[in-house]
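Hi V.,

You were right to ask for the full record rather than a summary. Here it is.
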Amino acid sequence: MAARLDRNCHLKKLGNPSYPPLLSSGLNQLRQQSAFCDVTIVVGDQRFPAHKAVLSCASDYFEGMFSSGFQESAMREVTVPGTEDCFAQLLEFAYTGYFTLSVQTAAGILRMANYMMLTDAMKLCAEYLCDVKENLSIDDCFEVWAISCNHDSLSDVAKLYQEHLVQNFPECGRSEVFLENASADILMEMMDNDDIETDTCTEEQILQVVIAWLKYDWEERKVSVAHLLKKARIGLVQVENLKQILGEEILDVPECKDMVEEVIRLNATKDEADVPLIESRPELFASRNTVTGQITCHCGGRFLCKTRSGCYLLHHLNDFPYTYPYLETEYQFGYGAMVYDSKDIYVACGNQDDDTTFQDDAPTNAKLMYESWLKKKNFFKFNLENNEWTVQNQ
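Predicted structure:
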């Protein structure tokens, strides 16, 4: 009796690699011809025939809309907020996987893609936006940043646009979108950024942005005025202009009035002060800019050191711990000065011609390490918050 043929032994899956794009192209042609369309999307004054199945596959927003139980699932016409041009590009993407971006439309398309939950379109749009931020308005930049902050996959875009907004902070005070939508926390976070003060952004301009934001909705935002004013270095604003810049509403807040009166009083006595105001009250009088200072050590070595501002001070070493970095032994040789800012202490070592002498009992490895650092012109940083040393290269 002949053996029964195993009909599964020669199975082979065959396919046409060009079929998916052909299918996509065919569906798009049907849409353009309004053939077999079962829904019309209304955006602004324009109507877009489409297929619910395609929209649901591309977008979680439409999938939820057309699911059973929602009234839109039975509707032939649905209105979606947005602009016609932006939706047209996203509809093209839903059918073909492609769309066209421009500087004028990119932010709007990202906004609509976010609303419609078109994740893939958002990622592509974000890649494009990383290259054109300099060409966008501050309104658009803030919107791109705000949307990107809500998506982990767009964290790089959020960081890039936050830096851009900080570097163009004065323009934020003229942005309707920023003034309407920025929160007090966002404003304070930007003011804490080291890069907010630049050659084109003075402390007075920073203060003017804060005032513009407060006055945009004073009744709701006045609870934040004292916190925000503490973030501003109002001691750097021309004292004769300070009250006029702030205005009566802000000066009517007792805490703010006290701060301003203190600044005026300190300014009047700054020439007689035992300690410069930049040192004694850095939260009011110290610039935010990077400070470049020449450090002079006890042994005579000199070099330039850069540090973020806060306060620029020279101290003797007996003002802070004498723990030798990494060796945990006391160092009594060669370190004569430091730069201090709000979080870190910077201790300079000398230069290559340093003639430092060591005590007889100084460890040999300490001498070798010290000499190595001298040649590299390094300096140490002691972090006050973390209570730890690191070595910084100049």
